[in-house]
Write a structure and sequence with these properties.
single chain, about 475 residues, alpha/beta, Amidase signature (AS) enzymes, eleven-stranded mixed beta sheet, 11 strands, about 15% strand, globular, binds glutamine
Protein backbone atom coordinates (compact mmCIF):
# COMPACT_ATOMS: atom_id res chain seq x y z
CA UNK A 1 0.00 0.00 0.00
CA UNK A 2 1.28 3.42 -0.92
CA UNK A 3 0.64 5.24 2.36
CA UNK A 4 2.00 2.36 4.45
CA UNK A 5 5.05 2.00 2.24
CA UNK A 6 5.62 5.75 2.35
CA UNK A 7 5.66 5.54 6.13
CA UNK A 8 8.10 2.61 6.11
CA UNK A 9 10.37 4.53 3.75
CA UNK A 10 10.18 7.64 5.92
CA UNK A 11 10.99 5.62 9.03
CA UNK A 12 13.84 4.00 7.11
CA UNK A 13 12.59 0.50 7.90
CA UNK A 14 13.04 -0.18 4.18
CA UNK A 15 14.58 1.53 1.18
CA UNK A 16 13.17 2.11 -2.24
CA UNK A 17 15.87 -0.11 -3.70
CA UNK A 18 14.91 -2.97 -1.39
CA UNK A 19 11.19 -2.59 -2.09
CA UNK A 20 11.77 -2.22 -5.81
CA UNK A 21 14.00 -5.29 -5.93
CA UNK A 22 11.29 -7.33 -4.19
CA UNK A 23 8.68 -5.98 -6.58
CA UNK A 24 10.83 -6.81 -9.61
CA UNK A 25 11.31 -10.38 -8.40
CA UNK A 26 7.54 -10.72 -7.93
CA UNK A 27 6.83 -9.17 -11.34
CA UNK A 28 9.22 -11.58 -13.03
CA UNK A 29 7.52 -14.50 -11.33
CA UNK A 30 4.04 -13.14 -12.08
CA UNK A 31 1.79 -16.07 -12.92
CA UNK A 32 -1.25 -13.88 -13.58
CA UNK A 33 0.11 -12.35 -16.81
CA UNK A 34 -0.28 -8.89 -15.32
CA UNK A 35 2.77 -7.44 -17.07
CA UNK A 36 3.63 -6.95 -20.72
CA UNK A 37 6.97 -5.30 -19.96
CA UNK A 38 9.18 -4.92 -16.92
CA UNK A 39 11.60 -2.00 -16.90
CA UNK A 40 14.19 -3.41 -14.55
CA UNK A 41 16.98 -0.96 -15.35
CA UNK A 42 14.68 2.08 -15.22
CA UNK A 43 13.09 0.95 -11.97
CA UNK A 44 16.39 0.27 -10.24
CA UNK A 45 17.78 3.63 -11.33
CA UNK A 46 14.65 5.44 -10.12
CA UNK A 47 14.78 3.59 -6.80
CA UNK A 48 18.42 4.51 -6.25
CA UNK A 49 17.71 8.13 -7.12
CA UNK A 50 14.84 8.13 -4.63
CA UNK A 51 17.00 6.71 -1.85
CA UNK A 52 19.63 9.36 -2.56
CA UNK A 53 17.03 12.13 -2.35
CA UNK A 54 15.81 10.74 0.94
CA UNK A 55 19.34 10.60 2.34
CA UNK A 56 19.72 14.28 1.40
CA UNK A 57 16.40 15.19 3.01
CA UNK A 58 14.98 16.10 -0.40
CA UNK A 59 12.14 13.57 -0.63
CA UNK A 60 9.53 14.64 -3.17
CA UNK A 61 6.32 13.47 -1.49
CA UNK A 62 4.24 10.44 -0.64
CA UNK A 63 4.96 8.57 -3.88
CA UNK A 64 8.71 9.02 -3.73
CA UNK A 65 10.36 5.60 -4.03
CA UNK A 66 7.07 3.69 -4.37
CA UNK A 67 6.86 1.03 -7.14
CA UNK A 68 3.88 1.50 -9.47
CA UNK A 69 2.79 0.09 -12.82
CA UNK A 70 1.19 1.70 -15.86
CA UNK A 71 -1.39 0.31 -18.22
CA UNK A 72 0.34 -0.30 -21.52
CA UNK A 73 -1.61 2.35 -23.41
CA UNK A 74 0.21 5.07 -21.46
CA UNK A 75 3.38 6.23 -23.18
CA UNK A 76 6.73 5.68 -21.47
CA UNK A 77 9.78 7.19 -23.10
CA UNK A 78 12.20 4.46 -24.18
CA UNK A 79 9.97 1.63 -22.91
CA UNK A 80 7.90 -0.31 -25.45
CA UNK A 81 4.21 0.63 -25.32
CA UNK A 82 1.91 -1.70 -27.21
CA UNK A 83 -1.70 -0.88 -26.22
CA UNK A 84 -2.07 -4.68 -26.16
CA UNK A 85 -1.94 -4.71 -29.96
CA UNK A 86 0.26 -6.41 -32.52
CA UNK A 87 0.02 -3.12 -34.34
CA UNK A 88 2.32 -1.51 -31.76
CA UNK A 89 4.28 -4.60 -30.68
CA UNK A 90 7.57 -2.85 -31.47
CA UNK A 91 6.64 0.73 -30.70
CA UNK A 92 9.01 2.59 -28.40
CA UNK A 93 7.60 6.03 -27.56
CA UNK A 94 9.95 8.98 -27.94
CA UNK A 95 8.29 10.81 -25.03
CA UNK A 96 6.39 10.26 -21.78
CA UNK A 97 2.66 10.76 -21.39
CA UNK A 98 1.91 13.70 -19.09
CA UNK A 99 0.75 11.28 -16.37
CA UNK A 100 3.99 9.28 -16.70
CA UNK A 101 6.05 12.45 -16.43
CA UNK A 102 4.05 13.57 -13.39
CA UNK A 103 4.50 10.25 -11.61
CA UNK A 104 8.22 10.41 -12.30
CA UNK A 105 8.31 13.99 -11.02
CA UNK A 106 6.63 12.74 -7.83
CA UNK A 107 9.45 10.21 -7.44
CA UNK A 108 7.38 7.10 -8.20
CA UNK A 109 9.30 4.07 -9.47
CA UNK A 110 7.74 2.79 -12.68
CA UNK A 111 8.17 -0.95 -12.57
CA UNK A 112 6.58 -1.86 -15.85
CA UNK A 113 3.65 -1.89 -18.21
CA UNK A 114 0.50 -3.88 -17.67
CA UNK A 115 -1.68 -5.97 -19.94
CA UNK A 116 -4.97 -4.73 -21.41
CA UNK A 117 -7.62 -5.51 -23.96
CA UNK A 118 -6.30 -4.29 -27.30
CA UNK A 119 -6.57 -0.47 -27.37
CA UNK A 120 -8.79 -0.71 -24.28
CA UNK A 121 -11.58 -2.49 -26.14
CA UNK A 122 -12.98 -5.13 -23.84
CA UNK A 123 -14.05 -6.03 -20.33
CA UNK A 124 -11.90 -9.08 -19.63
CA UNK A 125 -8.28 -8.47 -20.76
CA UNK A 126 -8.75 -11.54 -22.95
CA UNK A 127 -8.70 -9.27 -26.02
CA UNK A 128 -4.99 -8.60 -25.49
CA UNK A 129 -3.01 -9.63 -28.58
CA UNK A 130 -0.38 -11.17 -26.31
CA UNK A 131 -1.93 -13.12 -23.43
CA UNK A 132 -4.96 -13.13 -21.14
CA UNK A 133 -4.55 -11.82 -17.59
CA UNK A 134 -5.84 -13.95 -14.72
CA UNK A 135 -7.66 -12.87 -11.58
CA UNK A 136 -5.41 -13.25 -8.51
CA UNK A 137 -8.48 -14.30 -6.47
CA UNK A 138 -9.17 -17.19 -8.84
CA UNK A 139 -6.78 -17.77 -11.71
CA UNK A 140 -9.46 -19.46 -13.82
CA UNK A 141 -11.39 -16.18 -13.92
CA UNK A 142 -10.99 -12.80 -15.58
CA UNK A 143 -9.64 -9.84 -13.59
CA UNK A 144 -12.00 -7.68 -15.65
CA UNK A 145 -10.85 -5.22 -18.24
CA UNK A 146 -9.63 -3.44 -20.01
CA UNK A 147 -7.18 -2.45 -17.24
CA UNK A 148 -6.95 -6.06 -16.05
CA UNK A 149 -3.15 -6.13 -15.93
CA UNK A 150 -3.02 -3.10 -13.63
CA UNK A 151 -5.71 -4.69 -11.45
CA UNK A 152 -3.89 -8.01 -11.19
CA UNK A 153 -0.52 -6.34 -10.51
CA UNK A 154 -1.94 -4.42 -7.54
CA UNK A 155 -4.24 -7.17 -6.24
CA UNK A 156 -1.38 -9.67 -6.32
CA UNK A 157 0.66 -7.24 -4.23
CA UNK A 158 3.40 -6.78 -6.84
CA UNK A 159 3.05 -2.99 -6.93
CA UNK A 160 1.45 -0.59 -4.48
CA UNK A 161 -0.66 1.14 -7.10
CA UNK A 162 -1.18 1.36 -10.83
CA UNK A 163 -2.74 3.58 -13.44
CA UNK A 164 -5.54 2.40 -15.65
CA UNK A 165 -7.71 4.10 -18.22
CA UNK A 166 -11.49 4.16 -18.24
CA UNK A 167 -13.56 4.79 -21.36
CA UNK A 168 -16.64 2.86 -20.31
CA UNK A 169 -15.62 1.25 -17.03
CA UNK A 170 -12.11 -0.08 -17.56
CA UNK A 171 -10.77 1.17 -14.24
CA UNK A 172 -13.83 0.55 -12.09
CA UNK A 173 -14.87 -2.91 -13.30
CA UNK A 174 -11.43 -4.55 -12.96
CA UNK A 175 -11.08 -2.83 -9.57
CA UNK A 176 -14.40 -4.41 -8.55
CA UNK A 177 -13.28 -7.82 -9.82
CA UNK A 178 -10.01 -7.75 -7.86
CA UNK A 179 -11.01 -6.09 -4.59
CA UNK A 180 -9.41 -2.72 -5.33
CA UNK A 181 -10.29 0.93 -5.28
CA UNK A 182 -10.46 2.34 -8.81
CA UNK A 183 -11.16 5.97 -9.58
CA UNK A 184 -12.16 7.41 -12.93
CA UNK A 185 -11.73 11.15 -12.51
CA UNK A 186 -14.02 13.78 -14.02
CA UNK A 187 -13.41 14.11 -17.76
CA UNK A 188 -10.71 16.76 -18.10
CA UNK A 189 -9.20 16.45 -14.64
CA UNK A 190 -6.33 14.21 -15.75
CA UNK A 191 -4.42 14.84 -18.96
CA UNK A 192 -4.86 12.43 -21.86
CA UNK A 193 -1.71 13.67 -23.59
CA UNK A 194 0.41 10.64 -24.44
CA UNK A 195 -2.36 8.17 -23.69
CA UNK A 196 -3.12 6.05 -26.74
CA UNK A 197 -6.58 7.18 -27.78
CA UNK A 198 -9.57 4.84 -27.86
CA UNK A 199 -12.59 7.18 -27.68
CA UNK A 200 -11.31 10.65 -26.92
CA UNK A 201 -14.50 12.16 -25.51
CA UNK A 202 -14.76 9.33 -22.96
CA UNK A 203 -11.17 8.32 -22.06
CA UNK A 204 -9.75 9.22 -18.65
CA UNK A 205 -6.71 7.99 -16.71
CA UNK A 206 -6.99 7.14 -13.03
CA UNK A 207 -5.56 5.22 -10.08
CA UNK A 208 -6.12 1.59 -9.04
CA UNK A 209 -5.04 0.97 -5.46
CA UNK A 210 -5.63 -1.07 -2.32
CA UNK A 211 -7.11 1.81 -0.30
CA UNK A 212 -9.07 5.00 -0.81
CA UNK A 213 -6.24 7.06 0.65
CA UNK A 214 -3.82 5.58 -1.88
CA UNK A 215 -6.18 6.50 -4.73
CA UNK A 216 -6.23 10.06 -3.39
CA UNK A 217 -2.44 10.15 -3.28
CA UNK A 218 -2.10 8.96 -6.86
CA UNK A 219 -4.79 11.33 -8.12
CA UNK A 220 -2.96 14.22 -6.49
CA UNK A 221 0.19 13.31 -8.40
CA UNK A 222 -1.33 13.01 -11.86
CA UNK A 223 -4.17 15.54 -12.02
CA UNK A 224 -4.17 19.14 -13.16
CA UNK A 225 -4.19 21.34 -16.20
CA UNK A 226 -2.04 20.36 -19.15
CA UNK A 227 -1.69 22.56 -22.20
CA UNK A 228 -0.91 19.46 -24.27
CA UNK A 229 -4.50 18.17 -23.86
CA UNK A 230 -7.10 20.49 -25.37
CA UNK A 231 -9.84 19.08 -23.13
CA UNK A 232 -7.80 19.45 -19.96
CA UNK A 233 -9.50 21.48 -17.28
CA UNK A 234 -7.97 24.02 -14.96
CA UNK A 235 -10.41 23.04 -12.21
CA UNK A 236 -8.74 23.71 -8.91
CA UNK A 237 -6.68 21.01 -7.34
CA UNK A 238 -7.87 20.03 -3.91
CA UNK A 239 -5.91 18.34 -1.20
CA UNK A 240 -7.65 15.01 -1.52
CA UNK A 241 -6.17 13.67 1.66
CA UNK A 242 -7.86 16.51 3.54
CA UNK A 243 -11.23 15.69 2.03
CA UNK A 244 -10.99 12.08 3.20
CA UNK A 245 -11.77 13.16 6.71
CA UNK A 246 -15.04 15.01 6.11
CA UNK A 247 -17.34 12.03 6.77
CA UNK A 248 -20.79 11.42 5.33
CA UNK A 249 -23.02 13.07 7.87
CA UNK A 250 -25.92 14.79 6.10
CA UNK A 251 -24.81 13.56 2.69
CA UNK A 252 -27.62 12.48 0.40
CA UNK A 253 -26.91 9.25 -1.41
CA UNK A 254 -29.13 8.22 -4.31
CA UNK A 255 -29.85 4.65 -5.34
CA UNK A 256 -30.95 4.72 -8.97
CA UNK A 257 -33.74 2.21 -9.57
CA UNK A 258 -32.58 1.58 -13.13
CA UNK A 259 -29.20 0.35 -11.89
CA UNK A 260 -30.66 -2.61 -10.06
CA UNK A 261 -31.03 -4.47 -13.31
CA UNK A 262 -32.66 -7.77 -14.14
CA UNK A 263 -30.21 -10.61 -14.08
CA UNK A 264 -28.04 -8.97 -11.48
CA UNK A 265 -26.27 -11.40 -9.18
CA UNK A 266 -28.34 -11.47 -5.95
CA UNK A 267 -25.21 -11.60 -3.79
CA UNK A 268 -23.99 -8.39 -5.43
CA UNK A 269 -27.32 -6.66 -4.92
CA UNK A 270 -27.38 -7.67 -1.26
CA UNK A 271 -23.85 -6.50 -0.67
CA UNK A 272 -24.40 -3.16 -2.42
CA UNK A 273 -27.62 -2.46 -0.51
CA UNK A 274 -25.81 -3.35 2.71
CA UNK A 275 -23.12 -0.80 1.84
CA UNK A 276 -25.83 1.85 1.42
CA UNK A 277 -27.27 0.87 4.83
CA UNK A 278 -23.83 1.18 6.32
CA UNK A 279 -23.51 4.72 5.00
CA UNK A 280 -26.96 5.48 6.39
CA UNK A 281 -25.84 4.30 9.81
CA UNK A 282 -22.93 6.76 9.53
CA UNK A 283 -25.34 9.66 9.09
CA UNK A 284 -25.99 9.81 5.34
CA UNK A 285 -29.54 9.68 4.04
CA UNK A 286 -30.52 7.23 1.31
CA UNK A 287 -32.72 8.55 -1.46
CA UNK A 288 -34.58 6.56 -4.09
CA UNK A 289 -33.67 7.91 -7.52
CA UNK A 290 -34.59 7.57 -11.16
CA UNK A 291 -32.22 8.08 -14.08
CA UNK A 292 -34.79 7.42 -16.79
CA UNK A 293 -32.51 7.36 -19.84
CA UNK A 294 -30.21 4.69 -18.39
CA UNK A 295 -31.70 2.06 -20.66
CA UNK A 296 -30.27 3.83 -23.70
CA UNK A 297 -26.75 4.22 -22.31
CA UNK A 298 -25.38 0.93 -23.59
CA UNK A 299 -26.55 1.47 -27.16
CA UNK A 300 -25.41 5.10 -27.06
CA UNK A 301 -21.96 4.16 -25.84
CA UNK A 302 -21.57 1.37 -28.37
CA UNK A 303 -22.23 3.86 -31.16
CA UNK A 304 -20.14 6.77 -29.90
CA UNK A 305 -17.11 4.77 -28.71
CA UNK A 306 -16.68 2.81 -31.97
CA UNK A 307 -17.19 6.01 -34.01
CA UNK A 308 -14.41 7.76 -32.16
CA UNK A 309 -12.28 4.62 -32.27
CA UNK A 310 -12.65 4.27 -36.02
CA UNK A 311 -11.42 7.83 -36.40
CA UNK A 312 -8.58 7.52 -33.84
CA UNK A 313 -7.35 4.24 -35.25
CA UNK A 314 -7.13 5.65 -38.77
CA UNK A 315 -3.60 6.72 -37.94
CA UNK A 316 -2.33 3.13 -37.97
CA UNK A 317 -1.72 2.93 -41.67
CA UNK A 318 1.62 1.12 -41.80
CA UNK A 319 3.29 4.32 -42.99
CA UNK A 320 4.04 6.50 -40.01
CA UNK A 321 4.39 3.96 -37.23
CA UNK A 322 3.13 0.63 -36.07
CA UNK A 323 3.02 -2.66 -37.92
CA UNK A 324 3.90 -2.53 -41.61
CA UNK A 325 3.08 -5.42 -43.91
CA UNK A 326 6.02 -6.91 -45.78
CA UNK A 327 6.42 -7.19 -49.56
CA UNK A 328 3.65 -4.88 -50.64
CA UNK A 329 3.51 -3.40 -54.11
CA UNK A 330 0.99 -0.60 -53.86
CA UNK A 331 -0.15 1.93 -51.26
CA UNK A 332 -3.69 0.57 -50.92
CA UNK A 333 -2.32 -2.90 -50.36
CA UNK A 334 0.02 -1.49 -47.70
CA UNK A 335 -2.92 0.00 -45.80
CA UNK A 336 -5.10 -3.05 -46.15
CA UNK A 337 -2.55 -5.64 -45.23
CA UNK A 338 -0.93 -3.63 -42.43
CA UNK A 339 -4.29 -3.05 -40.80
CA UNK A 340 -5.58 -6.57 -41.38
CA UNK A 341 -2.45 -8.09 -39.87
CA UNK A 342 -2.00 -5.56 -37.05
CA UNK A 343 -5.49 -5.34 -35.53
CA UNK A 344 -7.30 -8.09 -33.63
CA UNK A 345 -10.88 -9.08 -34.32
CA UNK A 346 -12.59 -6.98 -31.62
CA UNK A 347 -10.75 -3.87 -32.82
CA UNK A 348 -11.75 -4.61 -36.41
CA UNK A 349 -15.35 -5.05 -35.28
CA UNK A 350 -15.32 -1.63 -33.59
CA UNK A 351 -13.70 0.04 -36.59
CA UNK A 352 -16.35 -1.40 -38.88
CA UNK A 353 -19.21 -0.41 -36.54
CA UNK A 354 -17.83 3.10 -36.19
CA UNK A 355 -17.11 3.62 -39.86
CA UNK A 356 -20.58 2.42 -40.72
CA UNK A 357 -22.28 4.69 -38.16
CA UNK A 358 -20.31 7.70 -39.40
CA UNK A 359 -20.88 7.10 -43.08
CA UNK A 360 -23.00 9.49 -45.06
CA UNK A 361 -26.62 8.43 -44.87
CA UNK A 362 -26.20 6.76 -41.49
CA UNK A 363 -24.52 9.61 -39.62
CA UNK A 364 -27.82 11.25 -38.67
CA UNK A 365 -29.54 8.00 -37.82
CA UNK A 366 -26.77 6.68 -35.56
CA UNK A 367 -24.03 9.11 -34.61
CA UNK A 368 -26.09 12.27 -34.30
CA UNK A 369 -28.89 10.40 -32.54
CA UNK A 370 -26.41 8.89 -30.09
CA UNK A 371 -25.01 12.34 -29.31
CA UNK A 372 -28.53 13.59 -28.62
CA UNK A 373 -29.25 10.71 -26.27
CA UNK A 374 -25.90 11.32 -24.60
CA UNK A 375 -27.17 14.80 -23.73
CA UNK A 376 -30.33 13.30 -22.21
CA UNK A 377 -28.25 10.92 -20.09
CA UNK A 378 -26.10 13.83 -18.93
CA UNK A 379 -29.24 15.78 -18.01
CA UNK A 380 -30.57 12.85 -15.99
CA UNK A 381 -27.50 13.14 -13.81
CA UNK A 382 -27.67 16.93 -13.61
CA UNK A 383 -31.20 16.65 -12.31
CA UNK A 384 -30.37 13.84 -9.93
CA UNK A 385 -27.48 15.80 -8.48
CA UNK A 386 -29.83 18.61 -7.51
CA UNK A 387 -31.20 16.23 -4.90
CA UNK A 388 -28.28 13.98 -4.03
CA UNK A 389 -24.54 14.30 -3.49
CA UNK A 390 -23.54 10.80 -4.55
CA UNK A 391 -25.14 8.10 -6.69
CA UNK A 392 -24.54 4.55 -5.46
CA UNK A 393 -24.88 1.28 -7.38
CA UNK A 394 -23.07 -1.95 -8.08
CA UNK A 395 -20.03 -1.61 -10.33
CA UNK A 396 -20.73 -4.82 -12.24
CA UNK A 397 -23.97 -6.79 -12.36
CA UNK A 398 -22.03 -10.05 -12.23
CA UNK A 399 -19.03 -11.63 -10.52
CA UNK A 400 -15.80 -12.26 -12.47
CA UNK A 401 -16.55 -14.85 -15.12
CA UNK A 402 -14.37 -17.72 -16.35
CA UNK A 403 -11.64 -16.76 -18.79
CA UNK A 404 -13.11 -18.85 -21.58
CA UNK A 405 -16.68 -17.51 -21.18
CA UNK A 406 -18.42 -14.98 -23.46
CA UNK A 407 -15.66 -15.19 -26.05
CA UNK A 408 -17.87 -15.85 -29.04
CA UNK A 409 -20.61 -13.43 -27.97
CA UNK A 410 -19.46 -9.82 -28.18
CA UNK A 411 -22.89 -8.50 -27.21
CA UNK A 412 -22.86 -10.49 -23.96
CA UNK A 413 -19.52 -8.87 -23.22
CA UNK A 414 -20.84 -5.35 -24.00
CA UNK A 415 -23.79 -5.93 -21.65
CA UNK A 416 -21.37 -6.32 -18.75
CA UNK A 417 -20.61 -2.58 -18.95
CA UNK A 418 -24.19 -1.46 -18.36
CA UNK A 419 -23.54 0.10 -14.94
CA UNK A 420 -20.24 1.83 -15.68
CA UNK A 421 -20.76 3.48 -19.08
CA UNK A 422 -23.26 6.22 -18.21
CA UNK A 423 -20.65 7.92 -16.02
CA UNK A 424 -18.29 8.27 -19.00
CA UNK A 425 -21.05 9.52 -21.28
CA UNK A 426 -21.80 12.25 -18.74
CA UNK A 427 -18.11 12.98 -18.00
CA UNK A 428 -18.61 12.42 -14.26
CA UNK A 429 -16.18 11.07 -11.67
CA UNK A 430 -16.79 7.45 -10.65
CA UNK A 431 -15.19 5.25 -8.05
CA UNK A 432 -15.40 1.53 -7.37
CA UNK A 433 -14.42 0.04 -4.04
CA UNK A 434 -14.78 -3.33 -2.39
CA UNK A 435 -17.97 -3.80 -0.37
CA UNK A 436 -18.02 -7.54 0.19
CA UNK A 437 -17.01 -11.01 -0.86
CA UNK A 438 -19.21 -13.59 -2.57
CA UNK A 439 -19.83 -17.03 -1.11
CA UNK A 440 -17.35 -18.27 -3.72
CA UNK A 441 -14.69 -15.91 -2.35
CA UNK A 442 -14.78 -13.36 -5.17
CA UNK A 443 -14.66 -9.61 -4.54
CA UNK A 444 -17.79 -7.47 -4.92
CA UNK A 445 -17.51 -3.79 -5.83
CA UNK A 446 -19.78 -0.84 -5.12
CA UNK A 447 -19.75 2.16 -7.44
CA UNK A 448 -20.04 5.78 -6.32
CA UNK A 449 -20.71 8.51 -8.89
CA UNK A 450 -20.28 12.19 -8.15
CA UNK A 451 -20.90 15.65 -9.54
CA UNK A 452 -18.45 16.98 -12.08
CA UNK A 453 -15.15 17.83 -10.36
CA UNK A 454 -16.50 16.69 -7.02
CA UNK A 455 -14.03 13.86 -6.45
CA UNK A 456 -13.76 15.20 -2.89
CA UNK A 457 -17.23 13.95 -1.94
CA UNK A 458 -16.63 10.62 -3.63
CA UNK A 459 -13.37 10.10 -1.79
CA UNK A 460 -14.74 11.04 1.61
CA UNK A 461 -17.78 8.78 1.13
CA UNK A 462 -15.50 5.97 0.05
CA UNK A 463 -13.15 6.54 2.97
CA UNK A 464 -16.04 6.42 5.46
CA UNK A 465 -17.37 3.23 3.93
CA UNK A 466 -13.94 1.62 3.81
CA UNK A 467 -13.33 2.33 7.50
CA UNK A 468 -16.79 1.12 8.49
CA UNK A 469 -16.66 -2.10 6.47
CA UNK A 470 -13.08 -2.85 7.45
CA UNK A 471 -12.86 -5.68 4.90
CA UNK A 472 -9.79 -7.79 5.15
CA UNK A 473 -9.59 -9.11 1.67
CA UNK A 474 -6.41 -10.80 0.63
CA UNK A 475 -5.57 -12.97 -2.31
CA UNK A 476 -5.69 -16.56 -1.16
N1 LIG B 1 -15.65 -2.53 -22.01
C1 LIG B 1 -15.82 -1.23 -22.61
C2 LIG B 1 -15.42 -1.30 -24.05
O1 LIG B 1 -15.06 -2.32 -24.49
C3 LIG B 1 -15.04 -0.18 -21.85
C4 LIG B 1 -13.60 -0.25 -22.09
C5 LIG B 1 -12.84 0.86 -21.45
O2 LIG B 1 -13.31 1.52 -20.53
N2 LIG B 1 -11.65 1.10 -22.00
O3 LIG B 1 -15.47 -0.35 -24.76
Amino acid sequence: MIAALGKALAEKSTTSLETTTTALTAAKRDTFNAFLAIDEAGALAAAKASDERRARGATLGPLDGVPVALKDNILTEGVVTTAGSKMLANFTPPYDATVTARLKAAGAVILGKTNLDEFGMGSSTVNSAFKPTKNPFDATRTPGGSSGGSAAAVAAGIVAGALGTDTGGSIRQPAAFTGLVGLKPTYGRVSRAGVIAYASSLDQVGPMTRTVEDAALMLEAIEGFDAADSTSSDAKKTSWRESLRSGVKDLRIGLPREYFVDGMDPEIERSVRAAAKQLESLGASIVDLSLPHTKFALATYYVIAPCEASSNLGRYDGVRYGHRAADVKQLKELYERSRSEGFGSEVKRRIMLGTFALSSGYYDAYYRKAQQVRTLITRDFEQAFQNVDVVLSATSPVLPWKLDEKLDDPLAMYLMDVLTLPCNLAGLPGLSMPCGVSSSGLPIGVQLLGKRFDEATLLCTAQSLESALNLKQEVR
